[in-house]
Amino acid sequence: MAELLKIEVTKKELTEGILPMNHVLCEMFYQSEGAETSSGIVYGVNTDLVYADNDNPDDPTSHAADMAETCAKVFRCPQKLYFNPNDEKSMNWETDMELEVGDSVFTNPIETLNAVSLVCEGKVYKLLPYHELYCAKRLNMVIMLNGYVLCLQKNKESLSTLDVTSESKVYEDRGIVTYLGNSNKRYKTDDHMDFIDLQVGDEVLFDRKYHPFLLERQTYASRFDNENLYWVVPRRRIVAVLNRET
């Protein structure tokens, strides 16, 4: 997919222009093409190509999605968010605006790929909807946004001494709550409700209709945690706590 729009702007326009409602202006840390891994290896990305997954050649996956820009730095943010259950232009849920300028925010590759881009003095800035932001990092602190939870993947246990495959796979219907923030206050849809009674360390079960996705797809390109991959799960998609350490 190509970016929808890219506009050259002045510094004054960038810093004083009016932001769209419920949007955050973010400076992109890097461009996918020619970006480097944490070990300094340069990888090029052609977003028009689809590559076969080395672990599963019969299931093609997008190499561009592995390398996509999912992390950015907050340059400007709204003072508050607009929620009105009777207005289709408002957010779908009521939540607090928890970002500060300078925070590193994480979103999905589709949003960053298709977001309106502003170019100023050689730097790229993108307008991202607040509701598409999952979490932020501020110094050594993680701030979860929009009622999202990050769950550490749980490996499947071996079925027997002859089973050599289960432990290399993970459950896609459960995980271990690792990062937890505020719940959303209310939703436009009356039957949506956040799971409130959660604690870090809980093993939780996801809604069977929900297909969890990873905050980052590959550890070698990770900017959140080089060692671990996390499921991104809305609180309202958690249906039970399976195990809690007391």
How would you sum up this structure, described in words?
The chain is mainly β and 246 residues long. It folds into two domains: 1-29 and 69-146, GroES chaperonin (10 Kd Chaperonin, Protein Cpn10, Chain O, Roll); 147-246, 10 Kd Chaperonin, Protein Cpn10, Chain O (Roll), CATH 2.30.33. Helix content is 7%, strand content 33%. The protein has three helices and 20 strands. The protein has helices at 11-16, 63-67, 109-114, and strands spanning 6-8, 23-28, 35-36, 42-43, 51-53, 56-61, 71-76, 93-94, 104-106, 117-120, 123-129, 135-138, 141-144, 148-152, 174-179, 186-187, 203-206, 213-214, 230-234, 238-243. The strands form five sheets. An eight-stranded mixed β-sheet has the order 1-10-11-2-7-9-12-13. A hairpin with a 2-residue loop joins strand 10 (117-120) and strand 11. The longest helix has 6 residues, at 11-16. The N and C termini lie far apart (48 Å). The model is unreliable at 41-66 and 163-167 (pLDDT under 50).
Provide the fold topology:
Elements: E1 6-8, H1 11-16, E2 23-28, E3 35-36, E4 42-43, E5 51-53, E6 56-61, H2 63-67, E7 71-76, E8 93-94, E9 104-106, H3 109-114, E10 117-120, E11 123-129, E12 135-138, E13 141-144, E14 148-152, E15 174-179, E16 186-187, E17 203-206, E18 213-214, E19 230-234, E20 238-243
Parallel strand pairs: 1-10
Antiparallel strand pairs: 2-7, 2-11, 3-4, 5-6, 7-9, 8-16, 9-12, 10-11, 12-13, 14-15, 14-19, 15-17, 17-20, 18-19
